[in-house]
Amino acid sequence: xxxxxxxxxxEITEQAVLIETNGIGYEVICPNPLQFQxxxxxxxxxxxxxxxxxxxxxxxxxxxxEEKQLFAKILNVSGIGxxxxxxxxxxxxxxxxxxxxxxxxxxxLTSFPGVGKKTARQMILDLKGKLPFEYHVEKQESTTTQxxxxxxxxxxxxALKALGYSDKEINQIKxxxxxxxxxxxxxxxxxxxxLMMKQ
Length: 199
Known about the structure:
- Residues 72-91, 107-126 form the Helix-hairpin-helix DNA-binding motif class domain.
- By secondary structure, the protein is an alpha+beta fold.
- The chain has 9 helices and 5 strands.
- Helix 8 (167-180) crosses helix 9.
Protein backbone atom coordinates (compact mmCIF):
# COMPACT_ATOMS: atom_id res chain seq x y z
CA UNK A 1 0.00 0.00 0.00
CA UNK A 2 1.37 3.43 -0.99
CA UNK A 3 0.50 5.73 1.93
CA UNK A 4 1.94 8.96 0.49
CA UNK A 5 4.31 10.31 -2.13
CA UNK A 6 6.78 13.15 -1.58
CA UNK A 7 8.13 14.67 -4.76
CA UNK A 8 7.98 17.48 -7.31
CA UNK A 9 4.57 18.53 -8.62
CA UNK A 10 5.37 18.22 -12.32
CA GLU A 11 2.01 18.69 -14.04
CA ILE A 12 -1.64 19.31 -13.22
CA THR A 13 -4.52 18.11 -15.39
CA GLU A 14 -8.29 18.33 -14.99
CA GLN A 15 -8.38 15.05 -13.07
CA ALA A 16 -4.91 14.38 -11.73
CA VAL A 17 -1.62 15.64 -10.39
CA LEU A 18 1.63 14.24 -11.79
CA ILE A 19 4.26 14.03 -9.07
CA GLU A 20 7.85 12.95 -9.75
CA THR A 21 10.07 11.24 -7.21
CA ASN A 22 13.31 9.35 -7.83
CA GLY A 23 12.86 9.65 -11.58
CA ILE A 24 9.38 8.10 -11.53
CA GLY A 25 6.25 10.08 -12.36
CA TYR A 26 3.08 9.05 -10.54
CA GLU A 27 -0.35 10.01 -11.84
CA VAL A 28 -2.49 10.73 -8.79
CA ILE A 29 -6.23 11.27 -9.26
CA CYS A 30 -7.48 14.07 -6.98
CA PRO A 31 -10.86 15.51 -5.99
CA ASN A 32 -9.70 18.98 -7.01
CA PRO A 33 -6.28 19.05 -8.71
CA LEU A 34 -6.40 22.86 -8.88
CA GLN A 35 -5.70 22.90 -5.14
CA PHE A 36 -2.11 22.02 -6.08
CA GLN A 37 -1.75 24.79 -8.69
CA UNK A 38 0.27 27.04 -6.39
CA UNK A 39 2.63 24.10 -5.68
CA UNK A 40 3.56 23.44 -9.32
CA UNK A 41 7.30 22.83 -9.56
CA UNK A 42 7.70 22.48 -5.80
CA UNK A 43 8.44 19.48 -3.62
CA UNK A 44 5.26 18.47 -1.84
CA UNK A 45 3.67 15.54 -0.03
CA UNK A 46 0.45 13.96 -1.29
CA UNK A 47 -1.43 11.45 0.84
CA UNK A 48 -2.45 8.56 -1.39
CA UNK A 49 -5.01 5.79 -1.42
CA UNK A 50 -3.89 2.84 -3.53
CA UNK A 51 -7.04 1.35 -5.07
CA UNK A 52 -6.51 -2.13 -6.51
CA UNK A 53 -8.91 -4.01 -8.76
CA UNK A 54 -8.44 -7.06 -10.94
CA UNK A 55 -8.17 -4.90 -14.06
CA UNK A 56 -6.57 -1.73 -12.72
CA UNK A 57 -4.48 -0.05 -10.03
CA UNK A 58 -5.18 3.62 -9.33
CA UNK A 59 -3.65 6.16 -6.98
CA UNK A 60 -5.99 8.73 -5.44
CA UNK A 61 -4.40 11.71 -3.73
CA UNK A 62 -5.30 14.25 -1.06
CA UNK A 63 -3.73 17.27 0.60
CA UNK A 64 -4.79 16.25 4.10
CA UNK A 65 -4.79 12.81 5.80
CA GLU A 66 -8.37 13.42 6.98
CA GLU A 67 -9.52 13.63 3.36
CA LYS A 68 -7.86 10.31 2.62
CA GLN A 69 -9.48 8.68 5.65
CA LEU A 70 -12.91 9.99 4.68
CA PHE A 71 -12.43 8.78 1.10
CA ALA A 72 -11.71 5.27 2.39
CA LYS A 73 -14.78 5.37 4.65
CA ILE A 74 -17.08 6.52 1.84
CA LEU A 75 -15.82 3.67 -0.34
CA ASN A 76 -17.24 1.27 2.26
CA VAL A 77 -20.75 2.57 1.62
CA SER A 78 -22.78 0.17 -0.49
CA GLY A 79 -23.26 1.52 -4.02
CA ILE A 80 -20.49 4.12 -3.96
CA GLY A 81 -17.24 3.70 -5.85
CA UNK A 82 -14.10 5.85 -6.17
CA UNK A 83 -15.71 8.23 -8.66
CA UNK A 84 -18.60 8.93 -6.30
CA UNK A 85 -16.31 9.33 -3.29
CA UNK A 86 -14.14 11.81 -5.22
CA UNK A 87 -17.22 13.82 -6.21
CA UNK A 88 -18.15 14.17 -2.53
CA UNK A 89 -14.69 15.37 -1.51
CA UNK A 90 -14.56 17.76 -4.47
CA UNK A 91 -17.79 19.39 -3.33
CA UNK A 92 -17.43 19.78 0.45
CA UNK A 93 -15.09 19.81 3.41
CA UNK A 94 -14.48 16.87 5.75
CA UNK A 95 -16.11 18.72 8.64
CA UNK A 96 -19.26 19.66 6.71
CA UNK A 97 -19.67 16.08 5.50
CA UNK A 98 -19.25 14.63 9.00
CA UNK A 99 -21.77 17.13 10.38
CA UNK A 100 -24.27 16.18 7.65
CA UNK A 101 -23.90 12.49 8.49
CA UNK A 102 -24.24 13.01 12.24
CA UNK A 103 -27.25 15.31 11.78
CA UNK A 104 -28.79 12.99 9.15
CA UNK A 105 -29.01 15.87 6.69
CA UNK A 106 -30.29 14.07 3.59
CA UNK A 107 -30.84 17.32 1.68
CA UNK A 108 -27.14 18.16 1.98
CA LEU A 109 -26.03 14.66 0.98
CA THR A 110 -28.30 14.49 -2.08
CA SER A 111 -26.63 17.68 -3.40
CA PHE A 112 -23.63 15.58 -4.44
CA PRO A 113 -23.48 14.24 -8.02
CA GLY A 114 -25.00 10.77 -8.31
CA VAL A 115 -26.32 10.70 -4.74
CA GLY A 116 -30.07 10.18 -4.45
CA LYS A 117 -32.21 9.71 -1.36
CA LYS A 118 -31.56 5.98 -1.22
CA THR A 119 -27.79 6.44 -1.34
CA ALA A 120 -27.96 9.30 1.19
CA ARG A 121 -29.82 7.05 3.63
CA GLN A 122 -27.25 4.32 3.05
CA MET A 123 -24.45 6.79 3.79
CA ILE A 124 -26.07 7.75 7.09
CA LEU A 125 -26.74 4.13 7.99
CA ASP A 126 -23.17 3.01 7.22
CA LEU A 127 -21.24 6.04 8.51
CA LYS A 128 -23.07 7.69 11.40
CA GLY A 129 -21.01 7.36 14.57
CA LYS A 130 -18.25 5.53 12.69
CA LEU A 131 -16.25 8.34 11.13
CA PRO A 132 -12.77 8.76 12.69
CA PHE A 133 -13.13 12.49 13.25
CA GLU A 134 -14.23 14.45 16.30
CA TYR A 135 -15.98 17.75 15.80
CA HIS A 136 -17.33 19.08 19.07
CA VAL A 137 -20.07 21.69 19.33
CA GLU A 138 -17.54 24.27 20.49
CA LYS A 139 -15.49 23.77 17.33
CA GLN A 140 -18.59 24.01 15.13
CA GLU A 141 -19.62 27.25 16.84
CA SER A 142 -16.10 28.62 16.45
CA THR A 143 -16.14 27.78 12.76
CA THR A 144 -19.53 29.41 12.30
CA THR A 145 -18.30 32.53 14.06
CA GLN A 146 -15.21 32.58 11.88
CA UNK A 147 -17.38 32.43 8.76
CA UNK A 148 -19.50 35.29 10.06
CA UNK A 149 -16.35 37.34 10.65
CA UNK A 150 -15.59 37.39 6.93
CA UNK A 151 -18.62 39.07 5.35
CA UNK A 152 -16.54 40.08 2.31
CA UNK A 153 -16.01 36.43 1.36
CA UNK A 154 -19.66 35.57 2.01
CA UNK A 155 -20.78 38.48 -0.15
CA UNK A 156 -18.40 37.44 -2.93
CA UNK A 157 -19.75 33.86 -2.84
CA UNK A 158 -23.32 35.17 -3.17
CA ALA A 159 -22.19 37.31 -6.12
CA LEU A 160 -20.66 34.28 -7.86
CA LYS A 161 -23.94 32.39 -7.35
CA ALA A 162 -25.81 35.32 -8.88
CA LEU A 163 -23.51 35.09 -11.90
CA GLY A 164 -24.72 31.53 -12.44
CA TYR A 165 -21.97 29.43 -10.83
CA SER A 166 -23.16 26.32 -9.01
CA ASP A 167 -22.47 25.43 -5.37
CA LYS A 168 -20.23 22.60 -6.57
CA GLU A 169 -18.11 24.96 -8.69
CA ILE A 170 -17.85 27.47 -5.86
CA ASN A 171 -16.95 24.82 -3.27
CA GLN A 172 -14.08 23.70 -5.50
CA ILE A 173 -12.43 27.12 -5.38
CA LYS A 174 -13.50 28.17 -1.87
CA UNK A 175 -10.29 26.88 -0.18
CA UNK A 176 -8.22 29.07 -2.54
CA UNK A 177 -10.45 32.07 -1.91
CA UNK A 178 -10.08 31.72 1.86
CA UNK A 179 -6.30 31.93 1.44
CA UNK A 180 -6.63 35.35 -0.21
CA UNK A 181 -7.72 37.18 3.00
CA UNK A 182 -9.20 40.10 1.06
CA UNK A 183 -10.92 42.98 2.85
CA UNK A 184 -13.40 43.79 0.07
CA UNK A 185 -15.78 41.49 -1.86
CA UNK A 186 -14.42 42.74 -5.22
CA UNK A 187 -11.03 41.18 -4.50
CA UNK A 188 -12.58 37.79 -3.79
CA UNK A 189 -14.84 38.06 -6.86
CA UNK A 190 -11.92 38.84 -9.19
CA UNK A 191 -9.91 35.92 -7.80
CA UNK A 192 -12.95 33.64 -7.98
CA UNK A 193 -13.61 34.47 -11.64
CA UNK A 194 -9.94 33.88 -12.46
CA LEU A 195 -10.04 30.46 -10.78
CA MET A 196 -13.29 29.56 -12.56
CA MET A 197 -11.66 30.30 -15.92
CA LYS A 198 -8.98 27.68 -15.15
CA GLN A 199 -11.50 24.91 -14.40
